[in-house]
Amino acid sequence: MSAADLGARLLQEVKVEGLDEGRGSAVVLLDLRNTFSLLRLKRVMMGYVYSCIGNASRPLSIEVINALVQASFEHLHVFRPQSLLSLLATLSNLQSYLFDTSSHVSANRALGAIVVNDADAFLWQARLEDAEDEISTSNTALKRGLLTNRFRELVAQLRRLQSIFSCLVIATSSALSSSTYVRIDGLHVPILQSHMPTAWKAFVTARFIVQRETVRKFQYGVSVEEAAREAQQRQEAVEKSAFSARIDWSESEAWREDTRNVIKTMGVNTDVNFKVTSESVDFNIDD
Which one of 124, 142, 212, 218 is separated from 262 by 20 to 30 angstroms, measured CA to CA? Predict the structure, then answer.
């Protein structure tokens, strides 16, 4: 999930001309690699408010916008578990925490989304523990795999919370690109190789592929001096390059019929392009 999407969900405290009233809900963010920046999110949200009220008849002062954004942060709950077991414990206790009126001011709000940032953060650590367990134990029953069991429990916990709060689960993870393409509904789409366990793949309703435009590499045989001269231009090109997001159709054959119909109705057969700057995430760009 981008900072812009997260910010749009949090802007809900004040009714402002030109700005949506928001969803009036809370958001839980599981920051598994400790990369989330509240300052960055604040900058993006400030830019988002400015873009929404640009044509308002009564412009807001910087103080009012800052207060609006700051107030919405009271309904963003960030957790940073350090292992897969810690993540499972966090999810197990999440229901009681969200209903605890003495801990925060979101207890009377709906839960809009659970965001799992870098869902694959503990994957390789869990694989290593799984391999060590197989070596150390002679019990065949225990050799079925800690990794599989823990990811099944992770999915079960997220399904339980979805059932209780009727909320979205939005997760990010990395994947390897592939040169293999399949033809689906008239489209040639690449197959991405995900390292996530089967239990997690079965849990996912639909995947979006987010990638950055490729910047031209240095030519073969370029000298150090030439590379140094081009370095600044290449950095500027990287900063100006856009991102694209699109539905991953390679696994669409496994979608439920209602999921397929909804996604087709959305009309997202083409890439959605956007740019990320120091102050905003801009979707109003030329393809």
Answer: 212
